[in-house]
Specification:
The chain has 191 residues and is an all-alpha fold. The chain has 5 helices and 2 strands. The two termini are 36 Å apart.
Length: 191
């Protein structure tokens, strides 16, 4: 349930970023009546709202993500250990099936959190790419400076963290899986 809410909120932010990117690309083409300053003001306002929403999502999900990652790391470790025991004993086919199912579900749960953070980071970077690809060089210097300020601010990427300790990215997912595998090998060596 929490994963679905996080995914929905992140997709909403991604959609807002896409709308902003399209508006950035259209700034110069809409300047027939000298309205680019109004459009740029609206873009700055929209960008501030996107940043605020992203920070609110970060505040809301940071502690939840930390608990989820810690708990799921342990569960993935123990499920992997149960899979190793079930395979080596040749008797526990039901234990093997249950453990593999739980292992898959918990791995996907961690992946959803990490992919949401990666998606948000890549979308926030795409704003500065859109400004670079726009026709900013055909604008008057004062308007292009405003775009430059938006570009500078958008280079500070939006992200979700796990308890403000580490960023939820695909690299973070890889770290969780490595930690689970390390703990699992220690358990297997002790058994």
């Amino acid at each position: 349930m929490i994963n679905a809410l996080l995914a929905t909120l992140i997709l909403h932010v991604g959609g807002q970023v896409d709308i902003m990117r399209q508006a950035i690309m259209d700034v110069h083409t809409n300047d027939k009546l000298g309205t680019s300053l109004i459009v740029l003001r609206d873009l700055i306002h929209r960008h501030r709202k996107i940043i605020t929403l992203s920070n609110d999502i970060e505040t809301l999900f940071s502690f939840i993500a930390l608990l989820q990652l810690l708990w799921n790391t342990l569960i993935i470790c123990f499920c992997g250990f149960m899979i190793i025991l079930a395979v080596s004993s040749n008797k526990g086919i039901m234990v093997l099936i249950k453990s593999m199912f739980l292992y898959t579900v918990k791995t996907l749960e961690v992946f959803v959190f990490c992919y949401a953070g990666e998606f948000l980071s890549s979308k926030s970077k795409s704003i500065s790419d859109a400004i670079y690809e726009s026709l900013w060089y055909n604008m008057i210097p004062s308007d292009s400076r405003i775009l430059l300020l938006i570009m500078v601010r958008s280079q500070k990427r939006l992200t979700i963290t796990a308890g403000k300790i580490f960023d939820l990215t695909l690299e973070g997912f890889m770290s969780v899986m490595k930690a689970s595998a390390s703990y699992m090998s220690v358990l297997h060596a002790m058994y």
